[in-house]
Amino acid sequence: VCLEGMRKMKAALDEADLHPYLMVQPLAYMTPDAGKQGFIDLPEFPFALEPRLCSRWEIMKFAREAYELGIRYIGGCCGFEPYHIRAVCEELGKERGFMPEGTKKHDQWGL
Question: Quick count: other Cβ atoms within 10 Å of Cβ 83?
Fold first, then answer.
């Protein structure tokens, strides 16, 4: 899960004095070795991607970095599970003004 492309785009937008709404929908897989077509080029695709799945803590870190970059629409794409979306909501709970309903299902480790 990487924001490098968004950082470059944000820098170019700032340089051009443009201020659009930014959104991101990352994969929930670690794919630094993916080919030109992305994760579908991996030998694990499509039936063995589980070892590459991001943890909720990695998604929380991603959400925080995205928010600090100015991205306000943070979702998920392939591989995202409900607990990943809940992790985004919990990480940004103070900014949102409330915690998701699912937060009642577990203790708030590190929050």
Answer: 14
- Between helix 4-15 and helix 56-69 the angle, nearest 10°, is 10
DSSP-derived letter for residue 24 is: E
Within 13 A of 11's CA, how many CA atoms are on the CB side?
Answer: 6
pLDDT band at 55 (very low <50, low <70, confident <90, very high): very high
* Mean pLDDT, range 3-19, rounded to an integer: 95
**11 vs 16: CA distance, rounded Å:** 9
DSSP string, 57-104: HHHHHHHHHHHHHT--EE---TT--HHHHHHHHHHTHHHHTS--GGGG
pTM of the model as a whole: 0.89
Instruction: Give the side-chain half-sphere CA count within 13 A for 64.
Output: 11
pLDDT(1) > 80: no
| pLDDT value for 103 | 83
